Amino acid sequence: MVAELGRAAVPVGVIGVGNISDTYLENLRSSYSPFVEVIGCADVIPERARAAATRWALPRTYESVDDLLADEQIRVVLVLTTPASHFEVCSAAVSAGKHVFVEKPISVSVDQASALVEHAAQVGVSIAVAPDTCLGTALQLALQVVEDGRIGEPIAASANMLCHGHEKWHPNPAFFYEPGAGPLMDMGPYYLSALLGLMGSVESVQASSQASFGQREVSSEPLKGTWIDVHVPTHVASTMRFERGGIATMVTSFDVWASQAPHLEIYGSSGTLVLPNPNWYDGQVLLWQVAGQEWVSLSPPVSANIDRRGLGLVDFVEAIAAGAQPRLDASLGLHILDIMESIGVSAKTDCLVPVSSRLSGPPLLQA
Ligand SMILES: NC(=O)c1ccc[n+]([C@@H]2O[C@H](COP(=O)([O-])OP(=O)(O)OC[C@H]3O[C@@H](n4cnc5c(N)ncnc54)[C@H](O)[C@@H]3O)[C@@H](O)[C@H]2O)c1
C-alpha cells in the first residue's frame, strides 16, 4: 500500500458535496487517511462546500470548482456530482492535469465517456470509476471461488435489483428519474461490475423496458409530498451474452414494492454461487457443488453492512503511485456504460444490440 511504502498521503479535492459525500468524507478522513488527504471541496452551491469543509475540518474551502482545480497541491479529484455533470466536471479536471475518480455512471453517454477517456490519455492522467463494492470481501471471495473452478465453467447468471425507488430516502431524488440515472444507470453498475468480474466482457444485449408510473411522489424530507416527472424507464429487463460464453439476465426496477428474488446468482457447469447484494461490500456467499449436493456458507452472515466507499479511491492512488492501471479503470466504466446504453437501444428497437467495447483493465480479483 502507498502508506506502507513510506509515501505521503495523496492530496485529494472533492467536487460535489451532496448526499453521498459525507460517507466518503467520513471514510477518507478515518480509515483511509494514511492513503489520501482530503485538502478541500467545491460545489456548484458554494455554501454547501463551506458547510462540508467545516463539518469535516478540511484545510481549504473553494468558492468554485475552478478554484479547486487551480490548486496545484491537489493531484486527484473525487467527483461526486450528479450524473448529468460528470462529463463536464471530469473534463475540466483532466484539463487541469488532475487524475479523476468519478462516481457512477462515468458519463451519461458512450460518446461523452469515450471523449473523456481519450482526453485523459492525451493529457497523461488516469480516470477510475465507482462503484468500488466489487473490491469488497464478498465479491472478492466469489471471484476467487470462480477462478478456482469450484463451480466449473460459468454458464449463466441472474441479477435482480428490485425496489421502489430512492424518493423514500434521498433528500433531492429528482435526478434518479433523469437520463444518466433510472434503475439501470443508477444501480446497474453495481450488478454489472460484479457480472463482468465473474464472466468477462459482454458482446450483445437484448432488453425490454417500461415506466410503470409516470410520476413519483416524494416521501422523504425536505421535499415530502412533491411529485417527480419520470423521464427514464423504471423497469428494465435485459439479457446479456458474454464474449467467452454464457448468458446473464438482469432486471433493474424502481417499480417493485416488495420482492424475495435473489440479488445475484452465478450458475456453473458443476455448481452454483449465490452472492449478497452487490451494492454491499460484504455478506454471505453460498456455494452449491454437484459433488457435495448441499449449500455451504463461505462467509459469515453480515452483522453490519459497513460502508467502505473510498476503497476504490485508495486502489486508484496506489495504482498511480505504482504507474499501474487501476482495477476500476475507466475502461470498466466505459464498458458498463456501453452495455447500459445498448440495453436502452435494444429496449427501444426490440432488437439484439452488439456491444462494441471490451474490458481492457486488470482483473478485479486482487492478488
Ligand atoms: N446518494 C447515495 O446514496 C449514492 C450512493 C452511491 C453513489 N452515488 C452517486 O454519487 C453521485 C452523487 O449522488 P448524491 O446522491 O450525492 O447527489 P446529490 O444531488 O445529493 O449531490 C450532488 C452534489 O453535486 C453538486 N453539483 C451538481 N452539479 C455540479 C457541478 N456541475 N459542479 C459542482 N457541483 C455540482 C450539487 O450541488 C450537490 O451538492 C451520483 O453519481 C450518484 O449516482 C450516490
Strand order of the largest sheet: 16-15-14-13-7-12-11-8-17
Low-confidence stretches: 1-5
**In percent, how helical is the residue content?**
25-40%
Categorize the overall geometry.
Answer: globular
Order of helices and strands: EHEHEHEHEHEHEHEEEEEEEEEHHE
Provide the CATH top-level class of the largest domain.
Alpha Beta
Provide the CATH topology of the largest domain. Dihydrodipicolinate Reductase, domain 2
Beta content = 15-25%
The assigned CATH architecture of the largest domain is 2-Layer Sandwich
The molecules bound to the chains, other than polymers, are: nicotinamide-adenine-dinucleotide
| Class by SSE composition | alpha/beta
The span between the termini is 13 Å
User: What's the total count of β strands?
Assistant: 17
Brief account:
The protein is α/β, with parallel strands linked by helices.
What labels would you give this structure?
367 residues; Rossmann fold; Dihydrodipicolinate Reductase, domain 2; six-stranded parallel sheet; 30% helix; alpha/beta; single chain; nine-stranded mixed sheet; binds nicotinamide-adenine-dinucleotide; 9 helices; 2 domains
